[in-house]
Amino acid sequence: MNARILAAFLLLAACGDDSQKTAVPGVPGAVKTLASVRAERRLFDGAPPVIPHHDFGADCISCHTTAGMSVPQFGFAPPAPHDPEQLQGAMSRCRMCHVFASKEPAFADNDFVGLRQDLRAGKRLNDLAPPVIPHQTLLRENCMACHTGPAAREEIRCPHPERERCVQCHLPQQTTGEFSR
Amino acid sequence: MTHCDRRGFLGALSGIGVAAFGPRDCAAARDLPIQDPQGHADLKWDKAPCRYCGTGCGVEVGVKDGKVMAVRGDAASPVNQGLLCVKGYHLPAMLYGKDRLQYPMLRKDGKLERISWEQAIATIAERFGQALADKGPDGVAVYGSGQWTVFDGYAALKWVKGGMKSNNLDPNARLCMASAVMGFMTQFQSDEPMGCYEDLDVGQDFFLWGNNMAEMHPVLFSRMLENKRRNPGVRIVDIATRRTPTSDYADLYVEFEPGSDLALANGILHLLVAKGKVAESFVTENCVFKRGIEDLDKIGYGCFGEQAEKYTFADETKDATREDFVKFLADYTPEKVAAITGVPVQQIQALADMYGDAERRAVSMWCMGVNQHTRGTWMNNLITDIHLLTGKISRPGNNPFSLTGQPSACGTVREVGTLANRLPADMVVNNPEHRAKAEKLWGLQEGTINPKPGHHAVDMFRAFQRGDVVAMWIQTTNPWVTMPNLHRFDRKPGDGRFLVVSDIYPTPTTDVADLILPSAAWVEREGVFGNTERRTQQWNKMVEPPGEAREDAWQIVQVAKRMGMGNLFPWPEGDWHEPMFEEYRKFTLGIGKDLASYAELKSTRGMLWPVVDGKETRYRYAAGFDPYVKKAAGVHFYKAKGYGEKAAIWLRPYHPPAEVPDAQYPFWLCTGRVLEHWHTGSMTRRVKQLHQAAPRAYVEINRADATRLGIKTGDKVRLVSRRGKLELPAMVDGRGKPPAGSVFVPFFDEGLLVNRLTLDAMDNISKEPDYKKCAVAVERA
């Protein structure tokens, strides 16, 4: 069952295929990929996404700029969610974590079922409190990268991007489940 | 309601202003239902070191319903501080390949048949017992792994050396870091680096000797790059035979002729002396000079066609003087070195100036380029010589630092001592005092341990092929992909010898096994690994292994018990990890190799040995850091009893490689790894994302050569060496760019075995094969 779904995703994960894109509400002309495609690009939620396009032979940051960039024929190149300063240092070798996807058949079948996290999982203290951050913020220091702009999924789009200091109101939720000391 | 009332909650956020919330926010907030259908927060997270390389990154493993569903970098780990590489992030899928080995299988009439553990254990005990009866202790062998946990290695060591009275126990780490071991042993009489990963944060000049760190130790590379970002004066020098992703980040790229690094290092030493850059008082106080056998004819290369069957060269340690050293180096003038190495005189001068600058800190790092070298021990010696001569050692940011490729090459192979000549904690079988100590701690009769060292790895496989060894057990490694000159070891089961292989997936090695045992992997069992920086890391069993898979140590203990050697493993079946570790730990206490207690390891993200009074040691031999150093300042190489507690500066000459390109085989062939795959790919190739990124081996060819031969990327190319042929796709201007006249092939692909071409020449002292240099012809297929 799972293998079949994965296989179906595999076929669908083609980059640049417009049938896998959906319009961004309120942003004329902008498109983004379907949530199912997003899932296929990660082994599990929290894993670094694979690179869905071919190797342009260019520096990643020439399109994945701090604000992101629309690339004709390909869609929107989202900005990296990593600390912009560390992108010049510890995080400067993108391909250390992000590798190119291909349609190469599997070497062997695999039964792994990854964690899939509801994107709206941020809990609130009460109905009106701002949601806490339901994921680790390490390596995701640039909230705007995923929560604003054409790349942001509707369900997690920030309604007030003008308030720049997100963690002022949204607390990182402790989900680490510390092992016993 | 027009305002969100969060005052109570905000109270907890001292120092942060009160936010104003508009009605739009509140409406938007209300529209988002609170739900967590996947229950991600229900995952149970526990710590473990990564399964793959010697870096030893901390990961947190998320488990739900008995399955690993996610991992993340462990922000509390001092090693990686939350960052992983692509292999680490994809760890969970490695456990769930559909073809996991789940049941013991015995080959009957050429076909594998499922058998019970009871039958498997009885069969192994009988065949090993028979081998001992027929051939004595030389008739059996165990080939282990730097991926063994401390438990696996310790169980194997005790069974082979204390039970079967054999020393035929050697690991795949012989193919990987044996030269580094012999480097440290010959200079400090104690194995493993003096520094720790903090060197990456505070070093100023980094010298990478034949080391593609960006791909092989990516997290450590990142740590160094972050240092460079924060401190723009940091310089990275890539000293290599091929351009790699590491070169892209280097301030200086120094390209040398394969094998000529020996001359280059001597050239640097020459200039340090000539320019008066020697740290005189440091050297006088802390160093002695030594030299060994230097005659090429006496040493040879130990490979097929030369000293074909056995290679047993033993070096000598002779005293030398400062004058001998200076005279020896006179041969290595910049001009002569430039002629041998192809490195311009200016670059040799620049390297010497950087190393010799007393105002700057220097870290040298190396891995397989230096270790897999027909004079690998010498090359290790020469790099450390540079640090000793300049006094840049045993201080933060000033160290020679050997990197390792396997997760417990240090913790298990080097510390437990699963080598043909070793006992725990740097002890050796040919020392009567060491044997006596082991026999006492193990409660064995005096004279139990065999004083004659066993077969080193390559020799062990030659002995198995000859029929001198008739029963062999291989665990956690894949030698029918990794042994050099694989043709020598071609095997069809049913040759009268008996081969047991424990692994988690089918491999070319299980293909030739007579009996296959299914092993528990990584967090399917409790374990301890020791990483490159002397950090011992423990993890708990988190999930059940598939089918009837069991951990390697358990397998060994069961066989030992069946052979009547149960006295070696007196612990109760359900609770033996901690008592076994604590017994092993006794070997390490009080001698500067002190491991932390099991309880301490369980409650921390690993500790750097020696651990004394609960405190770890970041810099060995250094006053103020190492509890064994009683001096107020400086260093004390207290482990080097044989050298008057001083470190040895070795005089080591340049020798040419065993095989060099000629008219018939005009190209150098170098082999190695890629970022996405770990070693033979038996785990990583079963992860879709990793496999798709690097689905098969290829041959990197220089653009000029490719143009001349009419080859472009993707074309099929035939490589021919004196040992074999291999056809594989070409890669021009790929991630690695070899210089004209050389090619590179990664070894992860069991379908394209580059080790059918490699030469089984090896280091004279460490007996580590040289996978980096042999001669091939290149043609369009």
Outline the fold blueprint.
The complex is a heterodimer of chains A (181) and B (781).
Chain A: H1 2-12, E1 21-23, E2 31-33, H2 35-40, E3 69-71, E4 75-77, H3 144-147
Antiparallel strand pairs in A: 1-2, 3-4
Chain B: H1 7-10, H2 23-31, E1 44-49, E2 58-64, E3 67-73, H3 86-89, H4 91-94, E4 105-108, E5 111-114, H5 117-135, E6 140-144, H6 150-163, E7 169-171, H7 178-188, H8 198-202, E8 205-209, H9 213-216, H10 218-230, E9 235-240, E10 252-255, H11 261-274, H12 280-286, E11 287-291, H13 296-299, E12 318-320, H14 322-329, H15 334-341, H16 345-356, E13 362-366, H17 368-371, H18 376-390, E14 399-402, H19 409-417, H20 432-442, H21 457-466, E15 471-475, H22 479-482, E16 498-503, H23 508-511, E17 515-518, E18 527-530, E19 535-539, H24 552-562, H25 577-585, H26 598-603, E20 607-608, E21 647-651, E22 667-672, H27 688-693, E23 699-701, H28 703-709, E24 716-720, E25 725-732, E26 742-746, E27 774-780
Parallel strand pairs in B: 6-7, 6-15, 8-9, 8-13, 9-10, 11-21, 13-14, 15-16, 16-17, 22-26, 23-25
Antiparallel strand pairs in B: 1-2, 2-3, 4-5, 4-17, 11-12, 18-19, 19-20, 22-27, 23-26, 24-25, 24-27
Radius of gyration of chain A: 17 Å
Find the CATH topology of the domain at 115-171 and 419-522 and 546-576 in chain B. Answer: Rossmann fold
Order of neighbouring strands in the sheet with most strands of chain A = 1-2
User: Helical segment tally of chain A?
Assistant: 3
User: N-to-C SSE series of chain A?
Assistant: HEEHEEH
Q: Tally of extended strands of chain A?
A: 4
Basic shape of chain B: globular
Q: How confident overall, as mean pLDDT of chain A?
A: 79
Largest interface: A-B, 69 and 84 residues
